[in-house]
Amino acid sequence: MAKLLSEISTPDYHIFFIENTEAIVNFIATRNYSKTFILVDNNTKKYCLPFLPKIEAYIIEVSEGENHKNLSTCEFIWNEMLHNHADRNSLLVNLGGGVISDMGAFCAALYKRGIDFINVPTTLLAMVDATVGGKTGIDFHRHKNMIGTFSHPNAIFIYPEFLKTLHKNHFRSGLAEMFKHSLLDNSIDAKNIFKLDKENPQLPELIAQSIQTKKKVVDSDPKEKGYRKVLNFGHTIGHALESCFLNTEKPLLHGEAVAWGIIAELWLSSLKLNFPKETMNQLISEIQSAFPEKINLLPHVDEIVNFTRFDKKNASGNVRFVLLKNIGEPVYDIEVAENEIIQSVLLLHEIINS
Ligand SMILES: NC(=O)c1ccc[n+]([C@@H]2O[C@H](COP(=O)([O-])OP(=O)(O)OC[C@H]3O[C@@H](n4cnc5c(N)ncnc54)[C@H](O)[C@@H]3O)[C@@H](O)[C@H]2O)c1
After folding, report:
1. Which of 67, 117, 122 to mutate to test the pocket of ligand 1 (most atoms within 8 A of CB)?
2. Which residue minimizes the CA distance to atom 3 of ligand 1?
3. What number is the average pLDDT over the span 342-346?
4. Above 80 in pLDDT, residue 264?
5. Which of 38, 109, 149, 248 is most buried per CB count within 10 Å?
6. Phi-psi bin for 313: left (phi > 0), alpha (psi -120 to 50), beta?
7. Atom 16, ligand 1: which residue's CA is nearest?
8. Ligand 1 centroid to residue 29 C-alpha, Å
9. What is the pLDDT of residues 20-36, one digit of tens each?
10. 137-to-104, 105, 168, 239, 258 alpha-carbon distances in Å
């Protein structure tokens, strides 16, 4: 018997916390889909697909990783759907991390002007962040998430069991987004986030709290006209770092880039909004101990600053940041001058390499 642990309702869909995958099978069975497609990458095919044996579906497999979140992979997915007779009444199941859910949702939103899709996140980052909130998208010419839509899934299923096979660096990457949520909303203690491991019995509850934080913000401003921008804290520098190292020998994971972006943006918060220095130093050392890797940013400073100019939050040629007055007090649309951005990247370089 399928067991539903709990659920979170949003205005457009439900997020189900499940104890076994039968709830997904039942959800599909009770809707009259003409055909079901499951999008996987090579890892989720191996580790996660075996949890869904009862679903009769056509499997679309793509290569894992951010450097495949692009137009040519979408073309492959659409081609697979077309040649296997996906019609308007078909369903796409996105079984994977944020790359699969961002790109699968984007493909579903555009195929025949939109078909149903459900998200089954298999990474921590996708559970707490990427699958929630309706943003879909792909990278374009090295610019992160440059092409996309706002489209909601028909449901999301959270099954924490999937996390058992996730690599520890990808788990840590998800903790970085939970850490960001905890800085936006006082309800979760930021100090304990990076101490979590996959076996922690409180993890499902903390995943649910982190989703609630994001949901609260998204419900208040679904299309990011204003307040939703606060979810981008850490992401202006974070996305610039991620774009800069995309397609290099050592690409950064999204959460790694965001963790370092948070360091730079905490410093900017103290510069521009008097964020308390003592709290800033404590938070930076939390991040440093979770992400001890060294990386030389000095040869890339100009490129990183240049990438911030393409950030979607910018207006009239000015680079705009989300900064914090204090924990739980984000402010959006703060203009930051180029020399201040440069200083923040130089300081980040110093901190990472200290
Ligand atoms: N739409 C949004 O609102 C939003 C928010 C945050 C992040 N994102 C996007 O999410 C993406 C990052 O997501 P991610 O960190 O999940 O990366 P990912 O999808 O690349 O997954 C990380 C790695 O883990 C593997 N994997 C996935 N599940 C596994 C499992 N259960 N066991 C073993 N291996 C598994 C994948 O194959 C991949 O190698 C970025 O593209 C980012 O832009 C989107």
Report:
1. 122
2. 130
3. 97
4. yes
5. 38
6. alpha
7. 97
8. 27
9. 999 999 999 999 999 99
10. 9, 8, 25, 14, 18
Please tell me the distance from the alpha carbon of residue 83 to that of residue 71, in angstroms, as a whole number. Answer: 18
Per residue in 47-60, pLDDT (tens digit) is: 999 999 889 999 99
227 Cα to the center of ligand 1, angstroms: 25
Largest CA distance in the chain: 60
| 117's tokens | 């899709």
Instruction: Tell me which residue has tokens 């492959």.
Output: 76
DSSP letter for 130, please.
Answer: I
Amino acid identity of 206?
A: L
Does pTM surpass 0.90?
Answer: yes
What's the gap in Å between 303 CA and the centre of ligand 1? 25
What is d(CA 94, CA 102) in angstroms, rounded to the nearest whole number? 9
Q: Are 153 and 260 in contact (CB under 8 A)?
A: no
Do residues 93 and 51 make contact, with C-beta atoms less than 8 angstroms apart?
no
Does residue 185 contact residue 213 with C-beta atoms inside 8 Å? yes
DSSP string, 145-170: EEEEEE---SEEEE-GGGGGGS-HHH
What confidence tens digit (pLDDT) does each residue in 312-331 have?
A: 676 666 789 999 999 999 99
- Which pLDDT does position 1 carry in this prediction? 41
Indicate which residue's Cα is closest to atom 9 of ligand 1: 98
The answer, yes or no, to whether residue 2 has pLDDT greater than 50, is: no
Which region holds residue 316: left if phi is over 0, alpha if psi is between -120 and 50, else beta?
Answer: left
